[in-house]
């Protein structure tokens, strides 16, 4: 079963983006098992996405070391490696996508990538460069900071909500004073 962060992303894909997805796709590796957090499909663009959810509320990926040298590539390699570390991941993905290569899409926090837009741009560039060098150009990066408020806005106080997460959002909006479909700031 997907963890709550993966569930948030899955519901965002379904409710906001109108994409299809499969969660927690397992595969075997030398040392045991691993998994793909989400495999998403955008039916309008006919594009698959390999989604890796990395929620780190307190962790910050360093852009520079103590001497001021660029460390963004090394910091982003830690995250990007999850997409390319196991050939079995790619084999499993292609078995679900009829051989098509999905775009890589991590979902993380702005805190982790850098509060300042300038740092985030540098970190995203390092992430994309790492994957591009390994045959995965055009990677995207999404942030919980953006998708959670958008998901909350799309969940109505009444209506059909068939997951615990969507029901929880609905109830919070109904009984906690979240008010006009927005999160308090």
Summarize the structure.
The chain is α/β, with parallel strands linked by helices and 185 residues long. The chain has helices at residues 4-17, 72-84, 87-96, 110-113, 117-132, 144-154, 164-175, and strands at residues 20-29, 32-42, 47-53, 103-108, 142-143.
Question: What does this protein look like?
Answer:
The structure is a single chain. The protein is α/β, with parallel strands linked by helices and 185 residues long. It contains 7 helices and 5 strands; from the N terminus they run H-E-E-E-H-H-E-H-H-E-H-H. A 5-stranded mixed beta sheet has the order 1-2-3-4-5, with helices on both faces. The radius of gyration is 18 Å and the shape is globular. The chain starts with a helix and ends in a 10-residue tail after the last helix. The model has no long low-confidence stretch (mean pLDDT 86).
How big a fraction of the residues is strand?
15-25%
Number of strands: 5
Mean pLDDT: 86
Our measurement of the CA-to-CA distance between the termini, rounded to an integer number of angstroms, reads 31 Å
Oligomer: single chain
């Amino acid at each position: 079963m997907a963890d709550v962060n993966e569930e948030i992303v899955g519901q965002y894909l379904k409710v906001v983006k109108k994409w299809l997805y499969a969660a927690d796709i397992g595969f075997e590796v030398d040392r045991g098992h691993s998994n793909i957090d989400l495999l998403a499909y955008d039916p309008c663009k006919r594009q698959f996405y390999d989604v890796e959810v990395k929620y780190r509320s307190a962790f910050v990926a360093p852009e520079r070391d103590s001497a001021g040298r660029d460390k963004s590539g090394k910091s982003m390699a830690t995250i990007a490696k999850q997409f390319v570390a196991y050939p079995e991941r790619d084999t499993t993905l292609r078995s679900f996508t009829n051989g098509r290569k999905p775009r890589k899409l991590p979902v993380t926090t702005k805190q982790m990538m850098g509060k300042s837009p300038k740092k985030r741009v540098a970190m995203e560039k390092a992430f994309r460069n790492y994957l591009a060098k390994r045959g995965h150009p055009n990677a995207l990066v999404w942030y919980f900071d953006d998708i959670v408020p958008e998901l909350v806005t799309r969940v109505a106080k009444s209506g059909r909500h068939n997951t615990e997460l969507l029901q929880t959002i609905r109830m919070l909006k109904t009984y906690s004073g979240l008010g006009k479909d927005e999160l308090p700031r």
